[in-house]
Design a protein that fits this description.
Bound molecules: guanosine-5'-diphosphate, magnesium ion
CATH superfamily: P-loop containing nucleotide triphosphate hydrolases
Order of helices and strands: HEHEHEHEEHHEHEH
Helix content: 40-55%
Number of helices: 8
Strand content: 15-25%
Structural class: alpha/beta
Shape: globular
Number of domains: 1
Largest sheet: 7 strands, parallel
CATH topology: Rossmann fold
Length: 218
């Protein structure tokens, strides 16, 4: 019983901070993505593709969540993008207060698109709002068709699901049509974008969609 109260309290406190972040993002006209998915699904690689496609058109900022290292932030910095690193030191998700604090190191008023790469995990990040406009989940074809059913909260909360590593699909038993059918049941509102961050297939459609969204509020 005590554990349940503690968890509820934590989530309530997080919601207050998430709303505060939302207000700040709105004031600064930032379109904010919470980028989620398991370790290795391709979050950073997809982000690199998006940056390469959009960095001349919109100003991008990135918050990189990682357990211990700065490896992803170094990759993103290589593109000349303002990046802040959060090391959670074992925590399996980012929370709104930590993100709000990290954003103090970014010039939000100059940023159109802010991407927050969350900790690789299909469980906890789904529960913690960060003040984002959109939750983007990356699922790679190597993860299997059972994942929406095994992690329903994440798949219910995601607004966009990027099915990545389509270049590898013939080596797996992943069935994209079955996935779309499952998603119609679990979360019919979610948009499904099959891409390969390796070959670039599907990336143009994704970035065009994103560009329209960013422009709408910038
Ligand atoms: N074949 C293939 N490999 C990919 C693709 N996207 C990412 N990878 C590889 O998957 C690994 C993990 O990618 P990364 O972006 O670091 O994943 P993250 O942990 O989710 O950020 C790296 O070796 C990438 O080169 C893809 O579309 N196809
Ligand atoms: Mg990464």
């Amino acid at each position: 019983m005590a554990r349940i109260d503690l968890v509820t309290g934590l989530l309530d406190a997080n919601s207050v901070m998430a709303q505060r972040n939302k207000d700040v993002f709105k004031e600064n006209k930032n379109y904010v993505i919470n980028l989620m998915g398991v370790p290795g699904c391709g979050k950073t690689t997809v982000l690199e593709r998006v940056i390469a496609a959009l960095k001349e058109k919109v100003t991008i900022g990135v918050v990189e969540g990682d357990l211990y290292t700065t490896k992803d932030a170094e990759r993103i910095n290589g593109y000349g993008i303002a990046t802040v690193q959060i090391n959670t030191v074992g925590e399996c998700h980012l929370d709104a207060a930590t993100v709000g604090k990290a954003c103090l190191d970014l010039s939000l008023k100059d940023i159109d698109l802010l991407v927050i790469e969350n900790i690789g995990n299909l469980v906890c990040p789904a529960e913690f709002e960060l003040g984002e406009d959109v939750k983007v989940l990356v699922l790679s074809v190597a993860e299997g068709n059972d994942k929406p059913w095994k992690y329903p909260l994440m798949f219910r909360k995601a607004n966009i699901i990027i099915v990545n590593k389509m270049d590898l699909i013939s080596y797996t038993d992943f069935d994209i049509e079955q996935f779309k059918t499952d998603m119609k049941e679990i979360n019919p509102e979610a948009e499904v974008w099959p891409v390969s961050a390796r070959t670039g297939a599907g990336i143009r459609e994704l970035t065009e969609w994103l560009y329209t969204r960013v422009k709408r509020i910038a």
